[in-house]
Automatic annotation (TrEMBL):
Gene Ontology MF terms in the entry: anti-sigma factor antagonist activity
Organism name: Alkalicoccobacillus porphyridii
The protein's name: STAS domain-containing protein
InterPro entries xrefs: STAS_dom, STAS_dom_sf
Domain of life the protein comes from: Bacteria
Domain STAS: from-to ranges: 2-114
SUPFAM superfamilies listed in its UniProt record: SpoIIaa-like
C-alpha cells in the first residue's frame, strides 16, 4: 500500500511517496493525490521510500506525468532507488515520459518533513 505526504515550499509542491506503487495503491493516488497535483504549477515527487513499482504503478505514473505536462505543469521525480530505476530503464519509462523528468537528488535540494 502507498501513502504520501505533501508540502508546499516557495511555490512548489513536494510529494514524498511512502510504500509500494502497485495495484493496491492506485485508487488512493487517483482519488487523493491527483486532485492536489492538478492545482499546482511545479511538482517534485520524492521516491526515496518507494522500493517496488508494478506495471499498474508505472502505467499510472506515465499517465499522470503526460496529463500534468500537457497542462504545462513541471514534474520532477527524484531519489529513485536503484531497484525502481532499473525497472524504469528496462521498460524505457524515460523514453516515454521524456528526458529531464527523472532528476538526480542533487538537483532537488529538499526533503519533505514527516
Amino acid at each position: 500500500m502507498i501513502d504520501f505526504v505533501t508540502e508546499n515550499r516557495d511555490g512548489r509542491l513536494f510529494v514524498r511517496l511512502d510504500g509500494d506503487l502497485d495495484i493496491d495503491g492506485i485508487e488512493k493516488i487517483e482519488t487523493s493525490l491527483i486532485p492536489i497535483l492538478d492545482a499546482q504549477s511545479e511538482i517534485y515527487i520524492d521516491f526515496s521510500n518507494v522500493a517496488f513499482v508494478d506495471s499498474s504503478g508505472i502505467g499510472l505514473l506515465i499517465h499522470l506525468i503526460e496529463s500534468l505536462t500537457s497542462k504545462e505543469i513541471i514534474v520532477k521525480l527524484y531519489n529513485l532507488r536503484e531497484e525502481v530505476l532499473s525497472v524504469f530503464e528496462i521498460l524505457q519509462v524515460t523514453e516515454i515520459i521524456g528526458e529531464g523528468i527523472i532528476v538526480p537528488h542533487s538537483e532537488v535540494d529538499y526533503q519533505v518533513k514527516t
